[in-house]
Amino acid sequence: MDDLLRIEDELSEEQRLVRDTTSAFVTDKVLPHVGDWFEEGTFPARALAPELGGLGLLGMHLTEYGCAGLDAVSYGVACRELEAGDSGLRSFVSVQGSLAMFPIWKYGSQEQKEQWLPRMASGEAIGCFGLTEPDHGSDPGGMRTTAKRDPSGDWVLNGSKMWITNGSIADVAVVWAQTDDGIRGFVVPTDTKGFSAQEIHRKLSLRASVTAALYFDDMRLPGDAVLPGVRGLKGPLSCLSEARFGILWGAVGAARACLEAAVEYARTRVQFDRPIGSFQLTQQKLAWMYVAVGQAQLTALHLGRLKDAGAITPQQISFGKLANVRAALDTARQARTILGGNGITLEYPVIRHMTNLESVLTYEGTEEIHTLVLGEALTGLPAYR
């Protein structure tokens, strides 16, 4: 599809290489199978992780410890191409790099970094991020999971987490818990006694993704399992900002895939002896979808450049997540109307992206929460309670 706004011209040679390499991987290894994965409710994480690691896509925006150390725009471009394949694929990479590796890289001890980051960057070890709880999603400060020090100096964790991507296949979990010293993060090997994970089934969205509930039953950890570099909600919220940045780029990929499918269908589907793309109403839909995708891409590129300049704020990331996911979901829904009945089959990517985006709209900050973030930025008045 033509790049009318010539946005791709703004990418550097290295960023284009990331784009092309990631796109080729998705085309060869994901698109031929993802419809079946979605229908079956499976995701071959163990098979894909080493390949993703070999391409340098796991923790790619981090430095040292086997990480690629690429810039924010490169990370965003990779997320865009991954989510053009499926939101579940981009979620896997986002959770691994931004939610599991990033807190260890940013706040962990040298021992924690050396133990986990090289293995996670290569795809040998898979990570997950335990923040959301059954009764505390948008209000993580109310979490009930606790970590208590006992006389030996060990930590004892009790509680549960919900909607955890990679939870039942992870080798390590970064778990956030209430302590006497505020909220702290813990690096938890998942073979620790007292840890258990139960995969969540019967999902109608993000089916090509592993989602689980985590349980901690008097789970004992050594004193040095805590992340030493952060206390309070700053820790998990900073991780979420990293992941939301990937989402605001990834949503562009899902939207673009839906638009491309709709354009191709409109060119070839004949009704009333004409391709439906020759009708004005269809062209109007396609034009507005193209505008939405272009605007979302410009937003992502601008925010990527701000991030590379070290000037991005959480409020700006909320703007991008709010605007781009909504644009992608609207585009997917409109594309579905162009495909008609064929739009609800897995022969085309549209319904898969559409249902996935319903989850993307909610996770890592609901649309309502990001709306209130912007509302507070505009008025100076918080309205969360």
From TrEMBL:
The keyword Flavoprotein applies. Gene3D superfamilies: Acyl-CoA dehydrogenase/oxidase, N-terminal domain (1.10.540.10), Butyryl-CoA Dehydrogenase, subunit A, domain 2 (2.40.110.10), Butyryl-CoA Dehydrogenase, subunit A, domain 3 (1.20.140.10). Its EC number is 1.3.8.6. PANTHER family: GLUTARYL-COA DEHYDROGENASE, MITOCHONDRIAL (PTHR42807:SF1). Residues 12-124 form the Acyl-CoA dehydrogenase/oxidase N-terminal domain. Its cofactor is FAD. Residues 128-219 form the Acyl-CoA oxidase/dehydrogenase middle domain. Pfam families: Acyl-CoA_dh_1, Acyl-CoA_dh_M, Acyl-CoA_dh_N. GO terms for molecular function: fatty-acyl-CoA binding; flavin adenine dinucleotide binding; glutaryl-CoA dehydrogenase activity. It comes from the Bacteria. One of its GO terms (biological process) is fatty-acyl-CoA biosynthetic process. Belongs to the acyl-CoA dehydrogenase family. This is Glutaryl-CoA dehydrogenase. The keyword Plastid does not apply. Keywords: FAD, Flavoprotein, Oxidoreductase, Transit peptide. Residues 231-378 form the Acyl-CoA dehydrogenase/oxidase C-terminal domain.
